[in-house]
């Protein structure tokens, strides 16, 4: 073990209580959409104490709102800033973005929680609370990694660009704003809850709404109408076929253990108002997964062509076309080659800390990685503590040991990636 | 033409204005469910003037509510009575029930109406208003037929039992109450809007609700859940098969021009709350048509067995069974042989008035005829002015010429069915 590695790992092990207190403080602040500021304030104060160069701003403006990757239905962002905090390097090293989102999803049914959703309650080595896993735990892993280096008085060559962004859960406007503000780097780590796996690729996703027309009639003479539900069944079957076709094409070994790499999920259907009437409209809503190497546009086009084809084959739909809308939030896919140097560094650090080879997969969901890589041209690996299943659930928790292990792995990766200044 | 036939037809032709005014008065009263009394009051006063023996009562009581044909979600019937008004015959003739319901369906979207829904507005030989067709027009045809006989000073042998009942649109509790009060006869005519066709058979119907279980999961890992929508598609397909099987068995020539004699209508489906979640429940609601010769119970059993079979074939449904409920309103089917004397009399009267043979079919919807025939053991033919399509629609109207033609046909049928007393 190199001298610096030893220093940061020792510091992290000796400062667990400090790290847990920081996480607890952050988890105890509610940062659901529109309420991010109080949590952001804790992060800002931490970065100020660490001596990082702070850039705090409220996102917005036409460049952002007119950007093709901007999908956001939030009216304004006033009072809930983005934060970028830079640890300037001495020069001559590679830069690294450490990106975490500060927003959390709603708590859902509060009665399903055993403790207050913002309790930060600790039990059996786990801390509970909305956002503990997704992804305040990851954010603290980043901050502790940075602090371990600063506290160990190590001077880096490359810059560390720490980002605490809003709006990830709603489509990534916060990270997009950071990219448009000029923040790019030679690599990026996003500690989303991957359960300590490395995700060089991430599935993108987008929502669709298909409106299926029918013609009303009395149920007793239903042959005088056209059932929107019957036509909706044709649409669902065609989407199932499309899902099969799209997934049959995916040969990437990262997906070898994933039954449906890029699912088309039909999440919702509503049709009809009265049992004895023929329904005149059906509305299907769902989520289309986008493969890491694919563009959103080509995936959209594929679904649109497939439904167009269905429309041509069905007499009723030919005269009464389906309407397809792409609405709501969306996440760009991300793809990094498996032998990219950032993967190599992370893998090595992982082995050093964990004593085993990491599992490498593709994520089944989108992250802000798609924006950093596609728009910001920054190579991204998603890697962090916490398990996906807990992420949006009641009684969300993070295993604290994983958080500290991830922090050690990230700290070692920073040292190797950014490089240690010799004059240190 | 017989002397009495001539008299009643002449009276009806000379008293069109009187008939139209009566209809207008009745159409202008709102008799939606729970508001039947003011319309009923006009009918009662008319029957009193005609010298009929009135039986006015509020329905209810345990005999009614515990009857197997009672399906009603109305809390109480207070203030909105049923009416039976009898024209006693001299004896020695056949009795005839003339049954019409006084309740009308809601007006729906008022802005779709060109006039007030209770205007009774007349234009181009049509009277407009909720219930004009379904079935205040038919009721007035009955009353005018009775009045034409009384005004012509014709004495009948058999009794005429005029019934103005509530609750037909919600499952027939009014007619059931009349049957249970003892009103039965040798025949019955119900002037529902058949567009002047004779319906010796009527389709029954009942509502079903099928709850389809699934298992929630994130859409990106949808293979970890079970889509209730996908399972609902299996249910819909199986119901389509069942509909085919059931209709293939129907060989009755009355159905020769009807594409689907007894449809299974899927009227409603709701499933899912979020586009990117796997839906954990789907609810399907619909209307099952019941063939005239079938019982409600055997039709229910057929659907239940068919879904049971599906459950046995599908691994998920075997462990997580479908739930089937029979809920809401229902109408018993009705069936009269084509050569029944009442059919013969109605056909003859029709020919005399219209100069052509009537169209004879089976109704695609239920009426109170199912209760009169199944529970009251009274042979029923459904025949009346007005077109089905208008029945529950905005701008409902009745063609006044049809109303008077139906009234003439019914008057002649009464004379022949009940018989004219020779001492007349």
Automatic annotation (TrEMBL), chains A, B:
This is Acetylornithine deacetylase. Belongs to the peptidase M20A family. The lineage of its organism: Bacteria, Bacillati, Bacillota, Bacilli, Bacillales. NCBIfam families: DapE-ArgE (TIGR01910), PRK06915.1 (NF005373). PANTHER family: ACETYLORNITHINE DEACETYLASE, PEPTIDASE M20 DIMERISATION DOMAIN-CONTAINING PROTEIN. InterPro entries: ArgE/DapE, Bact_exopeptidase_dim_dom, Peptidase_M20, Peptidase_M20_dimer, Peptidase_M20A. It comes from the Bacteria. Residues 202-313 form the Peptidase M20 dimerisation domain. Its cofactor is Zn(2+); Co(2+). Gene3D superfamilies: 3.30.70.360, Zn peptidases. SUPFAM superfamilies: Bacterial exopeptidase dimerisation domain, Zn-dependent exopeptidases. Keywords: Cobalt, Hydrolase, Metal-binding, Zinc.
């Amino acid at each position: 073990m190199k001298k610096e590695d030893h220093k940061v790992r020792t510091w992290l092990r000796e400062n667990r209580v400090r790290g847990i207190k920081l996480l607890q403080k952050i988890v105890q602040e509610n940062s659901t959409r529109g309420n991010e500021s109080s949590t952001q304030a804790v992060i800002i104060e931490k970065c100020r104490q660490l001596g990082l160069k702070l850039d705090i701003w409220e996102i917005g403006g036409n460049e952002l709102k007119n950007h093709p990757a901007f999908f956001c239905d939030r009216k304004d962002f006033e009072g809930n800033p983005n934060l970028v905090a830079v640890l300037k390097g001495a020069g001559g090293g590679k830069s690294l973005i450490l990106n975490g989102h500060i927003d959390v999803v709603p708590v859902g049914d509060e009665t399903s929680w055993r403790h207050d959703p913002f309790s930060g309650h600790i039990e059996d080595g786990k801390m509970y609370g909305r956002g503990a896993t997704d992804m305040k735990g990851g954010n603290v892993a980043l901050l502790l990694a940075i602090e371990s280096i600063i506290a160990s008085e190590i001077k880096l060559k490359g810059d560390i660009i720490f980002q605490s962004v809003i709006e990830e859960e709603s489509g990534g406007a916060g990270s997009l704003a950071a990219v448009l503000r000029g923040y790019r780097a030679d690599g990026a780590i996003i500690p989303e809850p991957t359960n300590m796996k490395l995700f060089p690729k991430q599935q993108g996703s987008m929502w669709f709404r298909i409106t299926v027309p029918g013609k009303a009639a009395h149920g007793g003479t239903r042959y005088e109408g056209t059932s929107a539900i019957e036509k909706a069944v044709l649409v669902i079957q065609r989407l199932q076929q499309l899902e099969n076709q799209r997934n049959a094409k995916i040969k990437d070994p990262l997906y070898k253990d994933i039954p449906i790499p890029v699912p088309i999920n039909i999440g919702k259907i509503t049709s009809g108002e009265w049992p004895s009437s023929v329904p005149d409209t059906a509305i299907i809503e769902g989520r289309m997964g986008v493969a890491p190497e694919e563009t959103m546009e080509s995936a959209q086009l594929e679904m649109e062509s497939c439904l167009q084809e269905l429309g041509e084959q069905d007499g009723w739909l030919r005269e009464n076309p389906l309407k397809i809308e792409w609405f709501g939030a969306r996440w760009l896919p991300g793809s990094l080659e498996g032998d990219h140097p950032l993967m190599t560094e992370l893998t090595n650090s992982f082995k050093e800390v964990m004593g085993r080879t990491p599992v490498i997969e593709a994520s089944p969901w989108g992250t802000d990685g798609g924006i950093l890589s596609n728009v910001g041209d920054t190579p991204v690996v998603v890697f962090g503590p916490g398990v996906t299943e807990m992420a949006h659930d009641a009684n969300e928790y993070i295993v604290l040991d994983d958080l500290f292990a991830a922090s050690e792995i990230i700290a070692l990766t920073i040292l190797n990636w950014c490089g240690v200044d010799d004059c240190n």
